[in-house]
Amino acid sequence: MSSDPKVKTIAVLGGTGREGSGLVLRWAQGGYRVLIGSRDAARAVAKAGELNAVIGEDVIRGLDNVDAAREADMVVLAVPYAAHEDILRSVADVVQGKILVDVTVPIQPPAIRTVYVPEGNAASLEAQALLGDGVRVVAAFHNVSASHLPDLAQGVNCDVLVCSDDADAKNEVFQLVEAIAGTRAVDAGPLANAVAVEALTPVLMYISKRYKVAGAGIRITGLE
Amino acid sequence: MSSDPKVKTIAVLGGTGREGSGLVLRWAQGGYRVLIGSRDAARAVAKAGELNAVIGEDVIRGLDNVDAAREADMVVLAVPYAAHEDILRSVADVVQGKILVDVTVPIQPPAIRTVYVPEGNAASLEAQALLGDGVRVVAAFHNVSASHLPDLAQGVNCDVLVCSDDADAKNEVFQLVEAIAGTRAVDAGPLANAVAVEALTPVLMYISKRYKVAGAGIRITGLE
Known about the structure:
Order of helices and strands of chain A: EHEHEHEHEHEEHEHE
Largest sheet of chain A: 8 strands, mixed
Radius of gyration of chain A: 16 Å
Oligomer: homodimer
Shape of chain A: globular
Structural class of chain A: alpha/beta
């Protein structure tokens, strides 16, 4: 990795989706160059134009997933679980040597408020197994509700639990967390601990519906 | 169940342990009659005497696990995961028709700060499968650190996520949560969602060690 601690270009694969586009917007606002990746490059270009208009600056570009992943310093994966494996296979070569931040939540629609444990226990563990040791997989941002990301005037009231087997990669992702106002990065341990972080998302979706709130999040207590 | 909404007698199997004895103390203080269950009745009797002295009242009794479970209106299981299945088998007959609150966290020592996904995905799902439909299993209290329970002068800064497939059983357990000052009960959905709640505990133990704090907990945001 570069000796500059701040990643310059982030690709968000699945950046046309609700969670992905919200993250794109926050990071673009935070001073990063952001690439939106999509299976359909035209859709990525359209979404980039839309989000640049919100920011009032031309810092977001749209590409297909593979080109976006190839150009970026750091790659963020925010895709439906059903597409997770296929998209990982398509970018496996171009993400070697990079950090891959996996935001994917393993759910089985229509039961989106019920925890689903995938074969590899966590989407991010499956990503690490598929990509091999040449890629440092970090699990993060799963618990930040998409409903809170688009309103740039509002901070996000949620801690971001960050899991990885690579301490340096965790530290680099901490900077991406700091770029989203209101959040706090918490080192949540090895990648195996992503099981808890991923599984918490359908629980938060259940809680949001049950208590009729816009997007429940979490805070770790006892750190103050 | 009785038409009286408040359970009168709670058995805590594993009530001689750190988490179990802390819960015993809080519930005894909250006005419940509490039975400590242990594989060794003499140890349960000794621990009951010790905790009654703390409370300054004679509301806790020690018994072996089976007798404690038989006598109680509601049974709480707070045992090491390695003993979970054996103890469940030993009380399976006497808990039929009752609520069983499973506090067990599936960990594999010595890796107590790393999530371990058991064969049945969650200890409480394994309990429900083993006990059958005649027992209403509720998962709760996993994230309340044992280190905060003994000091009765201090509230516990933690939400208690409660999962079950039975809505009435969840409501009865909500009352046990209210008896512990500082906590807040949150309906976290069906028992399948206990995967997240159980897995969060080794993550909180990791965070506590990593940030050198006494016992990290969680709060759900967005409900206020």
